[in-house]
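dumping this here before i forget
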Amino acid sequence: MVKKSSIGNRKSAIGNDTVAIFGGTFDPPHNGHVKIAETVLDSGRAGKVIFVPAYHPPHKPSSPVTEFKHRFRMLKLATSSNARFNVSELESRRAGPSYTSDTMMELDKMFPRTRHMLLIGSDSLRMLHTWYKAPEIVAKWPLIVYPRKGEIPSLDELKSNWGGEVAEKLMGYILPMTCIDVSSTEIRSRIASGKSIKGLVNDAVDSYIRKNKIY
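structure:
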C-alpha cells in the first residue's frame, strides 16, 4: 500500500481546486522551476502546484541522480515561500520506476474531488509519445506545457506522432511565457567548476548544497 505523501495533511485545503502536478528530477531545484510554477498560478490554469520529485526517473536509468532525500529537502526549501506550492514524496513510497501515469492515478485516488493537470516542459511534450501509457495520459489529464528554448515542437511534428486532432489539443496546452534560461545541468556544472550559483537557486538551497557537499 502506498503511504500518503506530505500533501496528505492538506487534503481539505486542496478541495475542489485545479492542481498542477509538476514532476521532475529537480537535481537541484532552481529559481526557474519556481518561476514556472508561479506563472502557472498567475495564468489561472491552476490554483495550486504540487511538485513531485521522481524517485527512480525512468528516462535517466543509467545517469547518476542525487539521493532522493536531498532533492526532496531542497525542493521544500525552494518552494517554502509560496503557500500555494506543496511537495509530495509520493514516488519514494512506490517500488520501481517513477511513471507519471502511476503517480497521476494515485493522486486521483487520494483526492477524487480534485482536478489534476500535468505540468511538463515543451521538451517533454516532444517526447511524450514515448512515455509509458502516453495515450492514457493524454486522454485522462489536461496538460500545462511551459516552453523550453529550442525545444518547442511544431504542429506537424506532433501530428506525426499523435494525429491531427490530438496534436491540435496538445499545442493548445503550451503556456505563453518567456523561456526560462536555466537548467539543473548548468547548475551542477557550475558547482563542479567552483563557480557561483547565486541567482540561480535561492539562498537556502545554495546553503544546503554547500553544507551537504552534494555536487
